[in-house]
Specification:
By secondary structure, the protein is α+β, with helices and mostly antiparallel strands. Helix content is 47%, strand content 12%. It has helices spanning 23-27, 29-39, 58-66, 96-104, 110-115, 117-131, 139-156, 163-175, 185-207, 213-218, 229-260, 262-270, 275-285, 316-319, 354-371; strands at 14-15, 42-45, 52-55, 71-72, 136-138, 221-222, 225-226, 290-295, 299-301, 304-306, 311-315, 376-377, 385-387, 392-394, 398-400. The strands form 5 sheets. A 6-stranded mixed β-sheet has the order 1-2-3-11-8-4. A 3-stranded antiparallel β-sheet has the order 5-15-12. Helix 6 (117-131) packs parallel to helix 15 and helix 8 (163-175) packs across helix 11 (229-260). The relative contact order is 0.19. The structure holds protoporphyrin IX containing FE. Residues 65, 89-90, 101, 104, 108, 152, 238-239, 242-243, 246-247, 250, 287-289, 291, 316, 343-345, 349, 351-353, 356-357 line the site of protoporphyrin IX containing FE.
């Protein structure tokens, strides 16, 4: 089913467009989405299994994310069939969603995130010290994707020795698309492996509880009953993906920008007190998520005539550059205030890990710049982005420093 003539609307043109294989978005997802925002408020795509609407403005995206009656978060994908079962709680709508979200919140609350600071700082320093003398590092593989996962594995009580293997699974599940993995063969396989792995961990923690998040979930109750194995696996899988991929991807874009804009980098080095607002500006400027919703009730939004079963694509990158919300939206301003970005989303599904993510990002900026204040992108580097279905990131980022 594509959008037929009768559904075409003068307010919203229909484009031959898929964000996960669009050449402009693949070349540079930030530029690609912002160029679309400058041209349209919203448009339709004729590339889905059902009609797909892409909504670009800040207010419209917030409306979709908040209105869970009209726009369901049920497990769905804009262009292909779902891979595996829904993830919990993200693919549930209220009120069911809240039952599981309530369990996760205390694990990732502001005091918990604050309490983890010394450990996170220690891990960050250890990593930066491991390459500071080399004068070069590939930021994604040797820093960002070692830093964020190691924090997360510690919380979940998972073996650090398997970090590289876990990362492979997460990257397959999130980085691959129909273009790179036709028929979702590798994604399904990675999901299966991760689920099997968690089945073992869950059984172990049921028998012998430890002080970790898996034990906590295994011994939690919903509606007065223990949580079933499949639901536990699904909750663990969501945390596994979100806890390892997100902060690392954000750090990749942040360091690329800071390496290419010495005036901002020096400002940050000279004024470490602005790190908290720098983190917010990084989250505004480099959001990683392109979220999807399922139209549950007929509605009209930004000129798009939406019917039940249609899909809605919500690029947070576009929302965060909307001039009507952010004056001089394309300027990177380390002191931007106010900064009501929606890099973490908005509404009931707003990121459960935002407090932890902020702590990790702030510590990474502080400890890196304390040790490596001057650096640049390795000459000849050409950025290559990996565009997944819901998230995107730089593939690699070689940085160099210290050569005189
Ligand atoms: C810079 C880092 C991060 C960013 C930009 C980010 C972004 C987001 C966004 C945009 C959503 C909402 C998606 C939607 O409504 O469709 C979300 C949800 C979520 N995030 Fe994050 N996230 C980050 C880090 C983390 C971390 C570190 C964790 C866990 C350890 C985490 C766990 C979650 C969970 C569990 C949800 C689902 C919440 C729900 O459905 O109620 N996130 N995140």
């Amino acid at each position: 089913v594509t959008i037929n003539e009768e559904r075409r609307s003068p307010g919203a043109p229909i484009l031959h467009f898929r964000h996960d294989s669009d050449p402009a978005i693949n070349a540079d997802p930030f530029r690609g989405w912002i160029d679309l925002l400058h041209r349209y408020d919203a448009f339709g795509s004729d590339q889905g299994g059902a009609p797909v609407w892409v909504v670009l403005r800040y207010d419209d995206i917030c409306r979709v994310m908040r209105d869970t009656t009209t726009f369901s978060r049920r497990y769905t994908d804009a262009y292909r069939n779902p891979v595996g079962d829904p993830l919990i709680p993200i693919h549930l709508d209220p009120p069911e969603h809240g039952k599981y979200r309530r369990l996760i919140n205390p694990l990732l609350s502001p005091p918990v995130a604050k309490g983890l600071e010394p450990k996170i700082r220690h891990r960050c320093i250890e990593l930066v010290d491991s390459f500071v003398e080399n004068g070069r590092v590939e930021v994604l593989h040797d820093f960002a994707f070692r830093f964020a996962p190691s924090v997360f594995l510690g919380l979940m009580g998972l073996p650090q020795e398997q970090a590289e293997e876990f990362l492979g699974l997460v990257q397959t599940m999130l980085d691959e698309t129909d273009a790179t993995d036709p028929g979702a063969v590798r994604r399904i396989q990675a999901r299966q492996e991760t689920n099997d792995f968690f089945a073992g961990v869950i059984a172990d923690r049921r028998a012998v509880p430890k002080e970790d998040y898996v034990s906590y979930l295994v011994h939690s109750e919903v509606d007065g009953a223990p949580i079933e194995m499949e639901t536990l696996q699904s909750m663990c899988l969501l945390l596994f993906e979100a806890g390892q991929h997100t902060v690392a991807s954000t750090l990749g874009s942040a360091f690329y920008y800071l390496a290419s804009h010495p005036e901002h980098r020096r400002d940050l080095v000279e004024h470490p007190e602005i790190v908290p607002s720098a983190v917010e500006e990084i989250l505004r400027y480099f959001p990683i998520d392109t979220s999807i919703r399922y139209v549950a009730e007929e509605t009209e939004l930004a000129g798009c005539p939406m019917k039940p079963g249609d899909r809605v694509v919500l690029p947070l990158t576009a929302a965060n550059r909307d001039e009507s919300q952010f004056p001089d939206a394309d300027a990177f301003d380390l002191r931007r205030d106010p900064n009501r970005h929606i890099g973490f989303g908005v509404g009931p599904h707003r990121c459960a890990g935002s407090h932890l993510a902020r702590v990790e990002l702030a510590i990474a900026l502080e400890e890196w710049h304390r040790r490596i204040p001057e650096y640049e992108v390795e000459p000849g580097f050409e950025p290559r982005y990996i565009i997944g279905t819901t998230v995107f990131r730089l593939d690699a980022l070689p940085l160099v420093w210290g050569a005189s």
